Amino acid sequence: MIFDVIIIGKGPAGLSASLYTTRGNLSTLIIGSDSELLKAHVIENYCFIPRATGKEMIEKGIQQARDFGAKVVEEEVIGIKQLDNTFIVSTNQNSYVARSIILATGKSKIQVPIKNLDIFEGKGIHYCVACDGYFYNGSSVGILGYTDYAIHELKEFEGITTNITLYTNGNELVVNEESKKYLSDNKIKINTSPILSVDGGDFLEFVEFKSGEQEKIEGLFVAYGTASSTDFARNLGVLVESNNIIVNKEQETDISGVFAAGNCTGGFAQVSTAVGEGANAGQSIKKYLRTIKQ
Amino acid sequence: MSVKVYSTPSCSWCVKAKDYLKSNNISFEEYDVSKDRNAATEMVSKSGQRGVPVLDINDNIIVGFDKKNIDKLLGL
Hints:
The complex is a heterodimer. Chain A is 27% helix and 26% strand. Chain A is built from 7 helices and 17 strands. Chain A has helices spanning 12-23, 54-67, 129-132, 148-155, 177-185, 229-236, 271-293, and strands spanning 2-8, 28-31, 71-73, 77-83, 86-91, 95-103, 125-126, 141-144, 164-167, 189-191, 195-200, 204-209, 214-216, 219-222, 240-241, 244-245, 258-260. By secondary structure, chain B is α+β, with helices and mostly antiparallel strands. Chain B has one domain (3-74): Glutaredoxin (3-Layer(aba) Sandwich), CATH 3.40.30.10. Chain B has helices at residues 12-23, 37-47, 67-74; strands at 3-7, 29-32, 54-57, 60-63. A 4-stranded mixed sheet of chain B has the order 2-1-3-4, with helices on both faces. Chains A and B meet through helix 3 of A and helix 1 of B. Chain B: This is NrdH-redoxin. Chain B: It comes from Alkalibaculum sporogenes. Chain B: Residues 3-62 form the Glutaredoxin domain.
């Protein structure tokens, strides 16, 4: 089945968008793990609702989206690829296809606690295997991460190099059975030692662990924690500035069929603004799909 | 005017940079650094890094799809 729209993120922006797409008779799939809003103890500045917990708001929003006809799945998105006029969304459990996408996962708060990553950006430290992986043909490379998102990036090295190490930086692996099998079948080395820094000369040369040991490496690709809207945007080629996805007043990005709403676009990080942007994105997608069907 | 674009096929930013040049009727030489090792070495030597795309506009090196600088160098 090809969905009219896949909304990535089930926070206020994504859920609000779904009300407009479903009411516009668009087949709508919402994919997301827990929203940041769930952690909010109490919200008192959302107009019309004097007081509610984040959990109450999200639960009501999901129920409302389902009542309107949206399909909601609790999965982690690990990659998005554009194929002609459709988008293939891979999760840790399935793969889905849609004519349009709304990025609404909020903003990643995960910081990679390793020294010098910024110094070697483009010089051994990279964030997109599909883009820069080719430079490491037959070389020793690493993926920095511990989730299915990291394994998804790791698979992109097929045909480029087999000398791959997964660096979890002290984290336990949080991956599904398919990823575990892939790591085992392909004899991927897994290093779980906590990392202190990366270092080298003009280019990256080694990883230094907190234990004081070092390991030589030519390229290290970062896919740490859960991928955010801005990670997907960067890989799709959507314009991003200062970690904010650039959108116009219709919530459209510069790639046809890709919209973004909520905290990932920057600005005032409030439930009210996210709901407003989501509504706008949902409405804009209706117009967009009508245009491409003509 | 000499414009060279160093890119890889699977990099969406490379496609975007090339489409932008084409839409402005700018002719350019294209190097696929995933296959052409000499071009890859040349690109790293010119830009001091391994990220794509890299544009060489009259010996001025631009890393990434930096539209502002591309416009400035091409007078767009």
